[in-house]
Amino acid sequence: DAGVIQSPRHEVTEMGQEVTLRCKPISGHNSLFWYRQTMMRGLELLIYFNNNVPIDDSGMPEDRFSAKMPNASFSTLKIQPSEPRDSAVYFCASSSGTGGSPLHFGNGTRLTVT
Amino acid sequence: SQKIEQNSEALNIQEGKTATLTCNYTNYSPAYLQWYRQDPGRGPVFLLLIRENEKEKRKERLKVTFDTTLKQSLFHITASQPADSATYLCALAEGGSYIPTFGRGTSLIVHP
To answer: Are the C-beta atoms of residues A70 and B17 closer than 8 Å to each other?
Structure first.
């Protein structure tokens, strides 16, 4: 298995632009997580999907952020409009969903908003 | 408030020694705790899981302990090697949600 695949690896954009991050989870995994990592705050959960349904989006910072999972093999995280404080590394992770199952992370998207 | 604390200072040790990393938590009742390794520019990689009713887990040169009274987990790497240099993250999840919350990680540097 290729593991969790995220694209793009790097994204540089100007403030106010729309940004879309993409994730392909491991086939057969029914849980998908979006995390954001910064030096100041570490890894923070943004949103959690189970069987393609958003279960917990309490970590989504504000309405500028939205996430979708239209099918079991694809998810997007969108920021519109982007702001410099959104600069971070965004990780997608998937798991089999049973309690204690390890999370399998992609290699992240490094977002820089100027 | 809930907190997961890992030493923010890097741990520097000599090759061959045992590295011990600490994860403390407050205001959590974890069902389990996990340890991950993260290399620069990569996503975290799962290493070990220990459940609330377990005291110790081992895997090759790795050992994890879990003390729910002290609210602490210790992560040990024996016979450390320069290749073990990385950031190590603990994550815990409470029963019911099973959504892992991560500490900020501790950087380990093993000197040859």
So the answer is: no
What pLDDT, on the 0 to 100 scale, is given for residue A1? 66
Which chain A positions have a beta carbon within 8 Å of B102's beta carbon? 35, 42-43
The shortest CB-CB distance from B49 to any of A45, A48, A100 is to A100
Question: Which DSSP helix (H) or strand (E) runs through B89?
Answer: strand B86-94
Which of B4, B104, B106, B107 is the best residue to mutate to test the A interface, defined by the most A CB atoms within 10 Å of its own CB?
A: B104
Tokens 């040169």, residue?
B61
% of chain A at pLDDT higher than 70 = 97
Name the range with the highest mean pLDDT among A53-57, B29-33, B59-63: B59-63
Q: Which of A2, A19, A3, A1 is nearest to A112 (CA)?
A: A19
Mean pLDDT in residue range A13-32 = 97
Checking if the pLDDT of A18 tops 90, the result is yes
Q: CA of A107 to nearest chain B CA: how many angstroms apart?
A: 4
Contact assignment for A103 to B100 by CB distance below 8 Å = yes
